Amino acid sequence: MPLALVALAIGAFGIGTTEFVIVGLLPQVAADLGVSIPSAGLLVSGYALSVVVGAPLITAGGSRLPRKKLLVGLMALFILGNLLCAVADNYTLLMIGRVVAALCHGAFFGVGAVVASGLVAPDRRARAIALMFTGLTVANVLGVPMGTALGQSFGWRSTFWAVTALGVLGLIGIIALVPPQPASDGLRGELEVFRRPGLWLALGTTALGFGAVFASFTYIAPMMTEVAGFSPGAVTWLLVLFGAGLCVGNVLGGRAADRSLMPSLYAILALLVVVLVAFVFTAQSQLLGAVTIALLGVVGFATVAPLQTRVLQQAEGAPALASAANIAAFNLGNAAGAWLGGVAIDAGFGYTAPNWVAALMALGALGVALAAGRVGPRAGARISPADESAHGVRAGQGPIGGS
């Protein structure tokens, strides 16, 4: 795999860390800035909403920039946002810093996925995307726990100084290692692909599929403490177990998607339904609950590379904005899944009820994916030289329009 993918993964690691590390620092932030815990929690919501808004807007605004320059600009924006967080002496400035950092999130992963897929041969594109997203999974396993520990030991601002340094490292890597990238065909071409029904079905699959993961994952802590009987201190290790599953699933999903995209996606979503239904019952046991959490990480994140690859396939010719829209769909799914899981708990169905909600969402994702499989190019088929010529794709490069 090209070294440029490592540079993209470093950027993804920094972005993934800054998104989630604030969760472990909420008590320190709230106490230091004199706000309530719920108010501090809005720093998480503000980030997520900024990702949803920023992903399409920033990508559209930079549609005429060469993609390497756009990535460099996005990392600079990320550095600025975290620098504002590091020096913030009040809640308002900290929120502004979070919003600025979040604006680059969706566009970076969207454009980065296009660049990553264009650095390798067509039959290795999903694995290249998975490698870039490895930075995000490692952020959950290592970046968030280490950032939390750093912030608890030296103050929460030290975490944002460290993340700022990660951003600088990612910026240097992109400048040094990512080869020159042409611009897209412009905003009109990027918007044109949204007339394709297959693209909307692909985005719907993403929102439902990843929403299913977060409908369950959001409530792992009360599920494991109140139902399985784990101590609160054990939740950290259960989250590490989940994060390890993410890493495994990311690799397996990329490999499976390169072999046969849509059949792999069907199988992964079907397995996700099974795991989520099983979790309703295995949550009663500490051992089985822990095993299921790991499996949820594996199967849940195995969807990422196939989902992102499917969107790129449906948006062939002008993929950058569609790819960023898919990142927004991931975040919309996260928000919807967490909300619906909470509704089930508030309705009195118990702490395992979010797993039923999640299973229904995953089943819906499978249904949409099956419908999507009937639209557009046949997924998973080997691209012949004739097909490459017909679709404007050459080995090691992206679709028409440059990637």
Automatic annotation (TrEMBL):
Its main location: membrane. The lineage of its organism: Bacteria, Bacillati, Actinomycetota, Actinomycetes, Pseudonocardiales. InterPro entries: MFS (IPR011701), MFS_dom (IPR020846), MFS_Efflux_Transporters (IPR050189), MFS_trans_sf (IPR036259). The keyword Transmembrane helix applies. It is found in: Cell membrane. Residues 4-376 form the Major facilitator superfamily (MFS) profile domain. One of its GO terms (molecular function) is transmembrane transporter activity. GO terms for cellular component: plasma membrane. This is Inner membrane transport protein. It is a multi-pass membrane protein. The chain crosses the membrane at residues 38-58, 70-93, 99-121, 128-147, 159-178, 199-222, 234-252, 264-281, 287-307, 319-341, 353-372. Residues 382-403 are annotated as: Disordered. PROSITE patterns: MFS. The keyword Cell membrane applies. It comes from the Bacteria. It comes from Saccharothrix espanaensis (strain ATCC 51144 / DSM 44229 / JCM 9112 / NBRC 15066 / NRRL 15764). Keywords: Cell membrane, Membrane, Transmembrane, Transmembrane helix.
